[in-house]
Design a protein that fits this description.
about 200 residues; Porin; eight-stranded antiparallel β-barrel; elongated; mainly beta
Length: about 200
Amino acid sequence: MRSSLFTSNLSARSLFAAAILVMASAFCVAQAAPEQGGHEVEIWAGGGHSVAGGRGNTGAFNAGLRYGWVITGLHLPGFLRGRFEYAVDAVPVFLVFQPANTAYGVGFDPLGLKWNFQRHGRISPYLELTGGTLFTDHSVPTGTNTVNFTDQAALGMHILGPRHNISLELRYMHISNAGLATPNPGVNTVQVRVGVGRFFRGPR
């Protein structure tokens, strides 16, 4: 009786362990990561507040859609090893909260230079430089211009999943009219951005 019970428990534990291994294997296989010839699609939202170096007391919120092309395979040695991706962002929602008013706008970022570092398990870190334009219904900053340019730098990571990825990043954004109007104090913000997206594998 005792032997039969032990054998039954052992079988149950073995089946449970096997099920866990099968699910873990399936999860790992299903994860899509940055790879040469692949594409990225993501929806994202972020916000933050002004920091030193420009007009203060200003907040920002923006949301958009990204499409990216992973152009290269793995390059560079050591911790720098990774893949280069080119991306564009459409930004249909851009709010700038100023003491005088709230400016509503839209933006477009045609220049997204992204370095996807080599993944570590489910974590795929990246570094990014982005440039774009911003059009608003009120001057940003107040008393300057409604057309601005956005220079951005971000450090983040993708958390890879079986159906989609979650991205978390810290982003610095400089908003300036580049001399289209005087004065041109600009606005510097630090933002936190969260995204949900997916990497699609390229043709085999």
